[in-house]
């Protein structure tokens, strides 16, 4: 009896696993079945061999899924999604080479889109709709990627201890009066790398390095934690000014933790460099992969995401500014007022990324 | 000769010296052979070589003129038709007495299996213990089950490795007699290994004295022990 | 002359299967090692100049302190539980294993959410008593914090191995020492520690491997160590060569440790022998010391299980409306089914390899069992890349076959499927299944196998009829351990999963990484609950074997 039990359980396992494997492959079959229907409906779209578009994305918002559903309803094109960290997705694209299934890559940073471009993973897209919807400085010089949402890297200050009139520029943060007051996360974070890269692009390497060194001297503590943690540390009194992205304040105001809401209410948002070169901005954006198999569908999705209809929801999911200038930002963002942003092509953030990382390592910004 | 062992040599992987150096022995059908030696003399190794659990470095073994080992042949243990009773019996703990005995009865239908089971249980006098698990038996009973299990497939040769070493001293003599009776009753050719010359005297037709992997004396117990 | 016989004896379905498995395990890793022979590039000089020292120092610090603290905690607890009676001892005996059910990365963000400024402790102090505490004392996102997390959630490795050793092996030694009039502390220092040396080292080396492989905690806390550095150079700098070089240094550290372990452990094995197993007769502690022992266990149990679990339960209540949906059940189904399937596969492969190597005790089989361990000592990220490269190559070379089967076939079939992930799991966790099954075989020994062979059964028949039923507990334990590990696994799943495939672990990590810690709670909690149940079964099996 006992040995029978083992054999039976082994067989059971085998059956279960077969069922599981077939279950896993079913979404794909579904997609194929789906596109046959699409083919039947509009046979003239010969290139539209498959009614699918495959998306590698670094965004994980539930609202994105609703948006993609709308896209599918409108066009009949099914969207397959692989979510992952930008770096890993890019590495995976590179590894898969020309056999990749991915048609589109969405990352949360221009520097990474540029990295994908340099590794020859993307291709240019020439679409009037995209050119109209996405301003020139928010897209790649060779149109290999297009920004979709915009965030500023701003100063967040303690309403109790700092008068916003004392604040002016990023450079001012290196002033000795802020010694022991500055909070910022680790240099391994891409947002800091892109920030420094923008300074290299605008002011040159020397100045950028000086700035980084100055910030290290003025840090309230060793860099640690994420952007939210910096705002929290301001309220907790560890420092007075935090460098962080705008959308985190939005997220904290909508947090399920009432204490976090309080924190967000107790800090002010300041857009630096308004007299000078403008506040550093970054985008999350999308690029068409070099070996996309569903190119037309993919471009349709890019256009859809940049459209007025999609932009609002897409940006608001993450409390960001829409890239499309004809779409208004959310009320919260409007309440912070309009601001002047750095007027550089965001491709430069990627081009100077390596240099920025080196400078961080050299000045000892952990 | 029924069994011919010629020039058997063997060396364990990690040892310098050969464990078995040139072992040659002929055995008549129905004969009971005792291999007597100290621990480390290589006596158990001879059994392992004959049963096929080890591969000799050279030498030939034939059973009834069938080559089971030579330079080009190696028959796996399951192909040799040799029964073996292990020192600690190695009764399968997850099977009843019946399961253990039937284990070796491969190519029989159910009826034949049951018949053979009854026969050997009769032989070792354990009929009413059929449904017990090994741990529910005494040491002597376990040994008899092991013997029944080895005999059930009707092997041409029976090997017994230190059959009495795991038994209490006062049981030994009794069981020795019983074992002799059973073996004689079946008329099976057997080799048993022991370190106790009383065992050899009581059971064996012929005694082989092994020292350091070499045979130093062969003969019937009277000749050998004087 | 008899070489042919040897070959004949060794060549069968078992050896062929084993050979194929081993080759499959080695190939992806070989890819990475080959990178190592190229000359260092510019990046590497930069890394060497500014970063390498930090990586080495941090990694060593984490290992050393975590190792030390887990030894102190693990051995003292196992001694207390196995030699003394005090209130709730029976409960703690098993409850102290539970921290293993909480993956360190979940513990890390839970503790941070608990202790930071907006966490429940500080807000309570602030809102009820208007106390503003110094953030320094509540900051867990530091090296010390990481050591705390690793210690609290990995010490059960030392505790369980040492405890089961003490329970099974040391009764007579300890009773002798007691009779000789030694006091408890003396017995602990001069008898318990030395005799259980091998068990302690065995446990702590598992702890160290876990620490070196950890990605979640150090990433979240922002501590530069080897595993974050490998991720960073590979993905952020796009520099495979330097990442491979870092991996090689890490592997070197691991192998040094393993050699050291062997050396320290000496020839002693800590699995119990066939000799009679007799539990220690426990001494009853008097009232005050009994309460002290109780408090000691309670504090550790609270820190290592109760507090973080309660915190997660609280967060789950805050967010369940938002999180629980049909999709969530899909996550659960994904997690459970992939863990079930992979663990089953790993156990089967481990069975074949372990059976092969115990039957053929030769150099090759020893080599095989060493190779099964390789995957466990390489960080998940490194394995992931090796596996991707391997599968893309495999797909390219099998394209003709796909075409033959389906003219419209895509080129990348295997490398876009779940099979790639399962393959990677197999490389990573084979060692766990293998060790469990190997020790099962060791306990059973070879005599039943031999008896079966002389009764006319072939190796395969013997395996099915004798070996398999006899080592069933070991198979089951191995299965459970692998299952839990896959359920918690992060880097491989993140990188290798196919389209539209999320698991509880990836979802929890995504939420935590998007700074939505509360939203991560339910997934985390479910991972923990399932792990607790399986761990419970695992130790029930262990206890049954002893009694």
What report would you give on this structure?
The complex is a heterotrimer of chains A (about 375), B (about 230) and C (about 550). Chain A is of the alpha/beta class. Chain A folds into two domains: about 45-150 and about 280-330, Periplasmic binding protein-like II (D-Maltodextrin-Binding Protein, domain 2); about 150-280 and about 335-365, D-Maltodextrin-Binding Protein, domain 2, CATH 3.40.190.10. Chain A has 15 helices and ten strands. In chain A, strands 1, 2, 3, 4, 5, 6, 7, 8, 9 and 10 form a ten-stranded mixed sheet that branches. In chain A, α2 (about 60-75) links the parallel β1 (about 50-55) and β2 (about 80-85). In chain A, α6 crosses α7 (about 205-220), α6 crosses α15 and α7 (about 205-220) packs across α15. The longest helix of chain A is centred in the first third of the chain and has 40 residues, at about 1-40. With about 230 residues, chain B is α/β, with parallel strands linked by helices. Helices cover about 35% and strands about 25% of the residues of chain B. Chain B contains seven helices and ten strands. In chain B, the strands form two sheets. In chain B, strands 6-7-8-3-9-10 form a six-stranded mixed sheet, with helices on both faces. The longest helix of chain B is centred in the last third of the chain and has 18 residues, at about 170-185. The two termini of chain B are about 25 Å apart. Chain C contains 25 helices and two strands. Chain C has helices spanning about 5-10, 15-35, 40-50, 50-85, 90-95, 105-115, 120-130, 145-170, 170-180, 185-195, 195-215, 215-220, 225-235, 240-265, 285-325, 325-360, 365-375, 380-405, 420-445, 445-455, 460-470, 470-490, 490-495, 505-515, 520-545; strands at about 85, 285. A two-stranded parallel sheet of chain C has the order 1-2. At the A-C interface, α1, β2, α3, α8 and α10 of A face α13, α15, α16, α18 and α21 of C.
